[in-house]
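Q: What would this chain look like folded?
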Amino acid sequence: MQQKRNKRKPKEELLSSISDSIILLLNHLYPVSEQLRIINKTLPKNCSVSEKTYLKYLKTYLKSDYIKYKKNIFIANNMQEMIRVILAFKTYEEQFENFKFKKFRSGNSEFNLSVEDYIYFFEEYFEKEKDIYIKK
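A: My prediction, written as structure tokens:
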């Protein structure tokens, strides 16, 4: 068990050394599988990061960025609902109040969206038409 922990430590250090790039991937809503593909492609050939190690790293060291990512990806996946409330209601508060999906599960975690989460997504992604990863 000690040997396994020592093996993982360099990967955590490696991920920490590229945390700014990881945050960019999260901010552009790349799926975790695509993030890992990009990260592993840049690593030396004898090194790779597993999904389990990566998710543990995100949940431990980039927790707030990861939670924000999960919420934003959820809203992005429900864009039709967002457009519906934007067309029907004028204020952010009214839009959020009438947004059907305010609570969701992802894996073993449950997330609650707040009006602040909704406004952040609207201003950061919708208004700015920010480039986000769309799987084709």
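The chain has a mean pLDDT of 87.
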